[in-house]
Amino acid sequence: MMKAMSMTFKQKGDDDYFIRLLSYLRSQLKENIVEMVPYRKSVIRIKTDKSSYMLKGFHTNKRLRLQEAFTATLRKEGFSKTYLFVHPQIKEPLFFEGTYFGCMEYIPPNRIPFSFQSQKNRQEGLELLEQYHQVTSSFESRYRTLIPKGIIIEKWRDRGKTFSSNISTLKYFINDKVLADLINWAQWSLNGMEKHRSMFLNEPFCILHGDVAHHNFLRDTNGVLHLIDFDLISIGPASLDYLQYANRILPSLDWSFDRLAQFPQYEDLLNEKAFLHALAYPADIFREWNRLIREGSYRDHKKYNQVMDLTTGQFYSRQKFIDRLQLMTN
């Protein structure tokens, strides 16, 4: 039985790929596979006659081994709210058509998906992230030669350059005034971050998660919140994760500085000029437009409307928020 094969996959050949993958997995696992549900090409849930697992693909065996070691260290050092890699009986390491597959515990999701829409979720996500930072700060030195250092200024400068290089295309979709404001906010933000860059370099360090989007927080059927997906881990100050988290939740806060300041995790950070400058950077808008143009997916009305809403839907609330940041840093 393979229920997921009735799903529609966007890339040509995906149906054939999953049929081949299922055949391969059945040849390798000693447990009988009764169901296979692909979420993406490299993320697949399988149910056997003994248990359920999540399979995740990696380009190299080295990356897979790093993830296995890191999640094991997390659990050993006291952070239990995530998955472990497991090793069901297999004939040999899972390697299929250029991809190394790791096998993880399956965490049954709650019927209500986690989102940043509720204050309870936003606070609980922050508390879980804080626990994660506390645990990883105790062993980050062991991983300094294995994972990169977290960078933000250089990454955002490159993102801004890509956005500006697309300006002739962007003018078809965004009016000149909004475009000019976005680019000016980005420049003001980067200038301030550069001036006060020591905040992003100073220890204490932890292992940053690197992708604190809502889909990387998973509430299980018992109501316990888990942190998942450590593909983008790096070494750096916790403020970098908190900055990204703020970028993610501010739209749900209607870009209210006062509502952001109510979270105790931001109490000290909002007194730092570097952090205030960083909050002004339109990272989300630049990221989504760069992707839309790179993939040519502005022809997809649904994706286009989502990015336009991100750009203009709360533009004036965001503008008011940035005006306050600029007043506070003068």
From TrEMBL:
Domain Aminoglycoside phosphotransferase as annotated: residue spans: 45-254
Gene3D superfamilies: 3.90.1200.10
Superkingdom field: Bacteria
PANTHER family: COTS-RELATED PROTEIN, SPORE COAT PROTEIN I
Protein name (record): Phosphotransferase
Source species of the chain: Neobacillus driksii
